[in-house]
Amino acid sequence: MTHMTIARSYLGTKELKGSADNPKIMEMYRTVGHHWVEHDEVAWCAAFVGHCLEKAGFASTRKLNARSYLTWGEKVAGLEQAKEGDIVIFTRGTSAATGHVAFFLKAAGTQIEVLGGNQSDGVTVARYAKSRLLGIRRPLCTDAPQRPEMKVVQQQLKDLGYFEVGMVDGRYGPRTRAAVLAFCADNGLGLSPDIDPVLVEALQRAKPRAVSQERAEGKPKGSRIVKAADAQIATGIAGMAGAAASIVVPAVETAERARDVTERTVGILNLTDWLMPALPWAGAVVFLIVILLAWKVKAARIEDHRTGKTP
After folding, report:
1. Which of 137, 25, 44 is nearest to 89 (CA)?
2. What are 100's strand-pairing partners?
3. pTM (predicted TM-score)
4. Residue 76 in contact with residue 82, Cβ under 8 Å?
5. Which of 3, 15, 56, 287 could link 236 by a cystine bridge, Cβ 3.0 to 4.6 Å?
6. What is the pLDDT of residue 243?
7. How far is CA 24 from CA 2, 15, 36, 126, 257, in A?
8. What confidence score (pLDDT) does residue 256 get?
9. Rounded CA Rg of the chain
10. With the CA atoms of 14, 16, 20 and 25 taken in that order, what torsion angle do they form, in degrees rounded to the nearest 10?
């Protein structure tokens, strides 16, 4: 079901008069994470848009601020390129902080026809002056069709050290968006997630992302991987020491039972004479392998940290 099919299913939904609240509108607040809202009179045009998007599998801004959609999704150059279902954002009043957001239906002369919530206190089809238009955005999600040019951008970001981009898969998901915004912030560009000519040109002439000296020489703090590797190394060292000194490990009963089973098995196979003396050495080799593998994992994690590949 598309977000427009969902949006149309709410046509006619209105706020309830008095102290009562429309449960459908209250659900819209909850869908976008605003469980604190107690009444359906709280501005809900962005809640309606976010609810329809998320029910259709898209990620919304999860905000009640209509203008939050000005940097969401993909920029549409103008009304000539707008399609039904695009997100349109309008001014509301004289405040630069307020606005109105709805789904684009069509351009009609000097006006734009939209389907939106909180229009005359309900979900309706209404028209707004083109002069009030702030921006048009198009939904994008992780399961959107692959875009070949996006792979190029993702690879460039990765080559420049913006590893938060994740996989080079041609999909404009949240990780790619985060990498684009980080690149824009580092290179003095406007904080816009748009893949536009300005960004493409900047990527071509940009230098690799700088890594601070403190990070380049440091270690990841609180890393579970490093802690686990250190624990494995310590266990391996203790195990080798125990094997070399023929010391029984703390779990004496368990170790003795395991030894009895081993001796019986070896005896049955007539391998006692030559295999039993080799068991301590075999144990030492196993512990040595554990140490080496843990050390390798730890070194790789530290290297990823120092080169900026991981937090």
Report:
1. 137
2. 90
3. 0.53
4. yes
5. 287
6. 61
7. 18, 9, 15, 20, 65
8. 52
9. 30
10. 10
Token pair 């554990």 in the structure block, residue:
290
Helix, strand, or coil here: 268? Answer: helix
Place of tokens 């009444």: 39
Tell me the residue type at 119: Q
State whether residue 106 is helix, strand or coil: strand
- CA 73 to the chain's CA centroid: 14
pLDDT 10s digits, 146-184: 555 788 889 999 899 888 888 888 877 888 888 888 898
How far apart are the C-alpha atoms of 30 and 46, rounded to whole Å? Answer: 12
Q: Taking the CA atoms of 123, 75, 183 and 141 in sequence, report the sign of the dihedral they define.
A: positive
Amino acid 9 reads S
- Give residue 250's pLDDT: 43
H helical segments located in the chain: 3-9, 23-31, 45-55, 148-159, 174-186, 197-205, 213-217, 224-244, 252-268, 272-275, 279-306
Neighbours of 239 (CB within 10 A): 19
Q: Determine contact, residues 219/299, Cβ cutoff 8 Å.
A: no
Q: Do the Cβ atoms of 74 and 94 come closer than 8 Å?
A: no
The amino acid at residue 236 is G
- How distant is the alpha carbon of residue 173 from its chain centre? 8
Please check whether residue 254 is in contact with residue 248, taking contact to mean a CB–CB distance below 8 angstroms: no
Residue 205 sits at the vertex; the CA angle it makes with 204 and 211, to the nearest 5 degrees, is 105
Question: How far apart (Å, rounded) are the C-alpha atoms in residues 164 and 119?
Answer: 39
